[in-house]
Model the fold of this input.
Amino acid sequence: MQISMNTAAAAAILLFTSQVSGHAAFTTVIGDADQKIIGNALGYNATLPRDGNNQMPFQDDTTVFNNPIVPATEGSLWHGKPRMWWSSGCGSSIGTLNKFYETDRAYKYSTPKMNADQRNKQYYQYPARALIEWRKLTYEMAKGKRLPKATANGWLRITVHQITPSGAGPYKCRIDSMGSASIWGEWLKIPDENNVPGSVEDKSINPGGILQDFPLTVPIPADLKCTGVYGEARNVCMMRCENFAADGPFGGCVPFILEEGDKAKSEPPAVELNANLGTDSEKATKVKRDEFDDIVKDSMGDFDNLDPQASSIAKAKFQKIPADKLAKIKEKLEKAKQENEKKAGQS
Done:
């Protein structure tokens, strides 16, 4: 598929994404029908800082499609029990759960007294009591005329902000033509060059992409018909995208309007990325082996919930990154650590 983006839209996206990071967060969305309209995934929090990687506040609006949203560790009532994938709906997030516990009559008085570990064990590592309110949020976007617009045989471009190693690609997407987030169609075919760097085999782990923004350009089927109605907005569809992370999957739901049109598509704009996936080259970095354990830990922020196998994948990938690029990643992680500490001191 060939895709074009005008300069104004590209500049607008850079304006937003330069300020925008969870394991991954969908921050901006545009469609080929009207590139001046900049939407976002449902549950996106525009007020969040995006220069750190701790769980709070930097992963507050990361959408997760497994329940509980955080894999249960020892001490959690759900430890040893399976997580369940949400096949319908738009998942949940730490921010969604915080809002519930901070306002619900049964929890609002005790919640402010809980520290991060207690919230993890009792709230995030327990079956979610609140889900992203996709219907309400879509109505709000429609009322504000912030629903992206695309055409059949066109595209939606999502900015994916990768926060930790497991927020990488690839992402898979499907559409509910009724806009109801419950009757999903087949998984769409997304060309590799339009996806976020990463692999299914590695469970969407790519250490080289942490704290970076990536374009996810999803083709819209030529025969798509959208029938959802939200206020004055007609022809609304819902798209849901997710990656293959073991501690996720992470992703988001994107409502959009399908416009009539059949214009020619052009090549997508070139995007320079630094998501080094690593190679098996003899020139791999000479950093001491045990130092990589610390690098993996730092890349996960304050709550390392990667399972042992996923941690091994992340460590192996870090070890394959050339020394000069690894040095830049470590510098970025050091800055993130400073921001993490700064925010922790303000809480």
User: Anything to note?
Assistant: The CA atoms of residues 69 and 316 lie 26 Å apart.
